[in-house]
Amino acid sequence: MHADTAVPAMETPRPAVPLRSRLAVIAIAAATFAMVTVESLPVGLLTSIGGGLGVSPGLAGLTVTLPGLLASVSAVVLPVLIRRTDRRLVLLVLLAVMLVATLASGLAPNFAVLLTARFFVGIAIGGFWALAASVAVRLVPEQHIPRATALAFGGATAANVLGAPAATLVGGLTDWRIAFLVVAGLGAFVAAALYALLPQLPATDPIRPRTLAAQLRVPAVRMAVTATFLLVGGHWAAFTFVSPILQQMSGLDERLIGPAQLGFGAAGIAGTFLAGSAAARDPRRVLLGTGVLLTAALALFTVAGQTPVGGVALLLVWGLAFGAVPVGVQTWIFRAAPEAAEAATALNTALFNLAIAVGALAGGLVVDGAGTAGALWTGAALGAVATLAVWAGGRSLTR
């Protein structure tokens, strides 16, 4: 063998992610899960909360509306206000606010105290959710950013489809106050983990108001956030009152509401995975299919959901459809604004939470005036409008 014999170049191995960084990303996902679970926590417990505090189910729905409204504002305002504040400190403070407010919710002696606590929950949720993904990707090498992003958003998705149903099951087996205290305990554990695992995270490029406003001038981003608002708003107009819907319309025993919602969550997880690969190819088609399926499930509930079996079956279809919404919209946004993904994501987070607030409020007004069937028709109508809007937008908006 000659000394000058060429040696094949070896590929540079992908840099490994330190164990502490991996655990920190997992802790962020768990914190997002806890935050979003707290936001939707009252949904399956409205009957119990209303009965325990002496208010109607429609009025009890304000415990979902108020934090959703505050979260939508916090998601765009807080990232601007904190400017160059260390992100680790901001996340820990927001977790502490959520923890204290959730404890206060579980111990609230009356509805006014509960609503005040939920006000602070909303501020914490919006700010944390808007920052979580951008913090997670700073903890790993560039090659691992997609996985870290998916994990951070996965916490929110899992909370939407599993967190609230699990809390409903706990509340149904014990008491609605216990459900709040259990989630507060989860928040305390997650806060301790983040304190131990997160390094200092000085701000890089602070978000400015003009950066957010500029995203609304991108047609695809504008259509994506519109789809988010309509689909999520339609979902929450009905889902806020899923407990009385299943009990009064389908005749499901109150003790089975928690297991039924866990089934909804499992279907939602399936919808998320099924939509993932499809959205990478064509997010518009995923949202069209989701809109049709969601609209059909809600509209058929008043006809085919009059029995426990029919109600649970439609609830599973409903969960399958809604589970596809976040991944479909987020994929659309990343494709539409790759150079401003953080700002576009903050905007979408704001619209997502605003939709929860507006949808829950609209549903509450309709339920108090026209009963639970009205909430289902309201959700179906918003889902139909979203589907028509995405269809009318055309294929050019997928880029």
From TrEMBL:
Residues annotated as domain Major facilitator superfamily (MFS) profile: 23-398
The alphabetical list of record keywords is: Cell membrane, Membrane, Transmembrane, Transmembrane helix
Which InterPro entries does this UniProt record tie to the protein? MFS, MFS_dom, MFS_Efflux_Transporters, MFS_trans_sf
Where is the protein situated, by its record's location annotation? Cell membrane
Q: Give the way it sits in the membrane.
A: Multi-pass membrane protein
Any one Gene Ontology molecular-function term assigned to this protein's record: transmembrane transporter activity
Q: Does the keyword Membrane apply?
A: yes
Record carries keyword Membrane: yes
Principal localization reads: membrane
CC terms in the record's Gene Ontology section: plasma membrane
Per the UniProt record, which residue ranges are transmembrane? 23-47, 59-82, 89-107, 119-139, 151-172, 178-198, 219-242, 262-279, 286-305, 311-334, 346-367, 373-393
Q: Know the name of this protein?
A: Putative MFS family arabinose efflux permease
Q: Which organism is it from?
A: Actinomadura namibiensis
